[in-house]
Structures are given as C-alpha cells and as structure tokens.
Amino acid sequence: MTRDEFNRFCAGLPATSHVVQWGGADVWKVGGKVFAICGWNDGADAFTFKVSKIAFEVLQDSPGIRPAPYLASRGMSWLQHYAAPGLSDAELRRHIALSHQLVAAGLTKKKRAELGL
Fold first, then answer.
1. Cα-based distances in Å from 109 to 57, 74, 112
2. Distance (Å, whole) CA 2 – CA 30
3. How far apart (Å, rounded) are the C-alpha atoms in residues 15 and 37?
4. Which residues fall within 8 angstroms of residue 1, CB to CB, at 6 or more apart?
5. Residues near 108 by Cβ (< 8 Å), separated by ≥ 6?
6. What is residue 44's three-state secondary structure?
7. Quick check: helix, strand or coil at residue 43?
8. What dihedral angle (degrees, nearest 10) is formed by the CA atoms of 93, 11, 78, 87?
9. Each residue of 81-115: pLDDT tens digit?
10. Cα–Cα distance between 42 and 98 in angstroms, integer?
11. The whole model's pTM is what?
C-alpha cells in the first residue's frame, strides 16, 4: 500500500479527519482520537494502527510487523507494518478499518451520535 492509497482508504471511513503532524506523518482520527498513522521508517512508509489484545499478541513478532514505537511501549495495543513481507494490502486495510472501529467504540455515546456512528 502506498501513502496515497492509505490516505484514500482512511478518508473513505466514516467520520474521519486528517492532520499532518509529528514530522510529516499522515495522522487519521475519528472523534478526535487517532486510529491510523502513516510515517517514515528509513525512507519507506510505515503504517501504524490499533489492534485487539489478541491480534497484538499474534502479530507482534511477524516479519515486517512490530509493536508500534512510542505507543506500544506505553502499554497500548498498537502495531506498525514497516517492511516486507508484513501484511498484504487487503489485510492492512482490514486492520485499519478494525482500528477505526475500536477507536470509535471507545468514544462516548454522545460523541458517536454526533458523528453518526
């Protein structure tokens, strides 16, 4: 997945917003909460997203995937797809969509209603 494909996919998810921060990273949010990030890793795109505790345990040692720098070290279940083989584009899209759902589910009922979620 390219950065442009990542941005198009995230933009297509419900009630999202986009900012560029942290040294040029594309940061996607739902209800003001981050659900996906595309930043640089040694000159290549790296995709960071929230996962369930089970997915974190299963995927964290897979080739091309690691606990997300900064986020996972703080006890959060976030992974980063940073190199091949990693995830296929379809799997990466699925995990980003699930990340969006996990973050949206953590919003207040009022906020979800305001966003139409």
1. 29, 26, 5
2. 21
3. 16
4. 9, 45, 47, 89, 92, 93
5. none
6. strand
7. coil
8. 20
9. 999 999 999 999 999 999 999 999 999 999 999 99
10. 27
11. 0.93
